[in-house]
Amino acid sequence: MGRNDDYFKEEMTYVSRSYEDDMDGEYVVNPVAESTLNVVAVIVLVIGILAGLIIMLAGILSDDSLGLIYGLIAGPATFVFSGLLPWACIKVVVNMSRNLHAIREELHELKNRN
Fold it and tell me: Could you tell me if residue 22 is inside a domain?
């Protein structure tokens, strides 16, 4: 093991100490955390869709023409900013986590081959 391997191991121990497997000291994927984030992402998206629909329907059903305009603008804006954008950000974090775990596995396999 070279100097860089020791540094990498120390950094990984600092960052991921809670995910360390007790049997062989390898770091494992935490699928529960990724699944939980996926569920949270879907819940955020559904709430954003419902909020956007409620605001849009309230604007459409209002007697005022200004309310109709606000409903048609604020409804989709609410959906985008409170549903779609947070959902997309959470999905990016989950995908980054999965990719990092896959890269770590590939590096570990390459290290064991040599």
Answer: no
Which SS3 state, helix, strand or coil, does residue 16 take? helix
To 10 degrees, what angle do helices 85-113 and 31-61 make? 160
Q: Is residue 7 part of a domain?
A: no
Write the DSSP assignment of 63-97 as a string of letters: SSHHHHHHHHHHHHHHHIIIIIHHHHHHHHHHHHH
pTM of the model: 0.66
Beta carbons of 29 and 101 less than 8 angstroms apart: yes
pLDDT digits (tens, 9 = 90+) for 98-107: 899 889 889 9
Q: Would residue 103 count as lying in a domain?
A: yes
Burial classification of residue 19, based on how many CB atoms lie within 10 Å of its CB (0-12 exposed, 13-18 middle, 19 or more buried)? middle
Structural domain boundaries, residue 55:
31-113
Give the count of domains, the chain.
1
